[in-house]
Amino acid sequence: MGDRGVFTKILAIVGTGLVWLPTLAPFFFSAARLLAGRIFRFDYLMPAELFLLALVGGLFLIWAALRAHSQRGIIVWGLGIAVAAVVASQLLAVVTGLASGETEPVGWQWALVLGMILGYNLALVVTGIGGLRLLRDLLWRSQPPTTPTEASENEQSTS
Fold first, then answer.
1. Could you give the C-alpha distances from 127 to 7, 51, 82, 104, in angstroms and in order?
2. How many other CB atoms sit within 10 Å of the CB of residue 90?
3. Per-domain residue ranges for the chain?
4. Each residue of 84-102: pLDDT tens digit?
5. How far is the first Cα of the chain from the last one, in angstroms, to the nearest whole number?
């Protein structure tokens, strides 16, 4: 087992929160707007706009996963794909002229950029799930005894 200390748990909690924030924020704000003004508006680009929060959270999760030796693969791959997808969507928007307004947001260019943003969102959800699994491993899984006295007490209580 890896390091399951307080610092690792704090990294995992903060990282998981920061990764989920860009994904959940549009739903929260849409619900608040709907309740306040009876108008439904959903900002589907908000997760990409909050990319830096997700990146910092993902880096915290990677650090915590490396310290705990748990959920490293899903977190690293999820964050890597998320970063690649959001960078690709921005590059495609610039190359196709969508970013400057030169090209109307219709057609294959728009679909390709939105597809990359959708891929980013899905990869962010996968990273967030990895964070939740890491939290489960850190906070709720039974931990092995740390001292010989605790080990002997556990053996006596199970027999």
1. 20, 13, 9, 33
2. 16
3. 6-142
4. 999 999 999 999 999 888 8
5. 25
